[in-house]
Specification:
The chain is mainly α. The protein contains 15 helices and no strands. The chain folds into two domains: about 25-180, Tetracycline Repressor, domain 2; about 185-315. It has helices at about 1-15, 25-35, 40-55, 65-85, 90-95, 105-130, 130-155, 160-180, 185-215, 215-220, 225, 230-255, 255-280, 290-315, 315-340.
Length: about 375
């Protein structure tokens, strides 16, 4: 009798199942979650690369340029969201504060967003082309980018091959911009595309070095961890110097003194950093996490010189203005993303806030 009363009382009090779904988040938070899934700061880089490609091919800004920037922005955003959908199960363990694993956004909604962005990117890309050949070129570029994205999801833990696949697809917006701008100076653009790819691998290694200390769960699976800190930072500096050398060649061919100056400065900073950075990241107990973090911040600031050389090499004044605008907006979006997503401000599941109660998720 006593057991019956206890069961009856629990039934009246309501379900106590710890995996019961939570109330649906407010619409405003769901929309914000979808927006952050596109990684606005990363996507901004795609528009920037497309601008560099356009400047190499055409000095004039027309409505085709606006269509090109919108197209590559949507294509990159759609690819990033789709990657989150494919990595949903892994992210529940490695990045529970993200909108998808935190249950803020459903997988179905995220997949629909990715599809809409990709279709819109294709339409704008065709509108950006000024010739039939341009339409074919832009279509082929997007198809190749999609294939590389699928391959990357399979090989992203393979070390350098994964980094290279990621970097090539990140550099593809430059191809779209160049084709839409008229596809002139193919040799110079090939060199710049190679430089963009090298710089992308360098950025991937730099992010891996940072993650080793700040996010060991992810960092220990990166290319930087496979190489070891000392070798990884040496490769970062070598790739920076190689990128600068490629840009120096293009700037010299174009008679662009501003591009020459920035390229030389970028290479000099990279080479001058090798001895000190190698000592800092040597695997011994004398080096602290704080000293490594400090060195990475210095290295990131110095890389601004090389990054600015891309648009300035193509078109000096307009390129410099584009870089300043890009850097300003990127800094704002990066800080906002860290506060709202990485630190768990949006989902309430950042470091120290993780809720052990399992959630019932949809698809994001």
């Amino acid at each position: 009798m006593h057991v019956r009363r206890l069961v009856g009382r629990r039934a009246m009090d309501g379900p106590t199942d710890p995996i019961a779904p939570r109330p649906r988040p407010p619409l405003r938070r769901r929309i914000e979650g979808l927006a952050w899934l596109t990684r606005p700061a990363i996507v901004l880089d795609s528009a920037f690369y497309a601008l560099c490609g356009w400047f190499l091919s055409s000095p004039r800004a027309t409505w085709h340029l606006a269509a090109t920037l919108g197209s590559v922005w949507m294509a990159r955003a759609g690819g990033i969201v789709m990657n989150d959908v494919l990595d949903y199960e892994d992210d529940k363990r490695t990045a529970p504060q993200m909108p998808l694993p935190a249950g803020l956004v459903s997988v179905r909604a995220a997949a629909a967003l990715a599809l809409a962005l990709m279709l819109s990117a294709g339409g704008l890309g065709l509108a950006a082309a000024t010739t039939a050949g341009g339409m074919v070129g832009i279509t082929a570029t997007y198809v190749a980018c999609f294939v590389l994205a699928v391959l990357y999801s399979r090989f992203k833990g393979s070390g350098f091959p994964g980094s290279l696949l990621m970097s090539i697809q990140v550099s593809f917006p430059g191809v779209v911009g160049w084709v839409a701008g008229g596809a002139r100076d193919a040799g110079q653009f090939a060199i710049v595309f190679g430089a963009l790819t090298l710089f992308g691998v360098r950025q991937n290694l730099l992010a891996g070095l940072r993650d080793i200390d700040t996010d060991p769960l992810i960092g220990l699976r990166t290319t930087a961890a496979r190489l070891g800190m000392e070798r990884a930072v040496a490769w970062v500096l070598r790739l920076t110097a190689l990128t600068s050398a490629a840009l120096l060649l293009v700037a010299a061919l174009r008679g662009n003194l501003a591009g020459v100056g920035l390229s030389v400065a970028g290479a000099a900073l990279a080479l001058a950093s090798i001895p000190g950075m190698t000592r800092t990241f040597r695997d011994d107990e004398l080096r602290t996490r704080e000293s490594r973090s400090r060195s990475l911040r210095v290295l990131a600031r110095r890389s601004y010189v090389t990054a600015a050389a891309f648009p300035v090499t193509a078109l000096p004044v307009a390129g410099l203005l584009a870089w300043v605008l890009h850097w300003t907006v990127d800094a704002f979006l990066s800080r906002a993303y860290h506060a709202r997503v990485t630190a768990g401000g949006l989902t309430g599941t950042g470091p120290g806030q993780l809720d052990a109660t399992p959630k019932v998720h949809g698809v994001a």
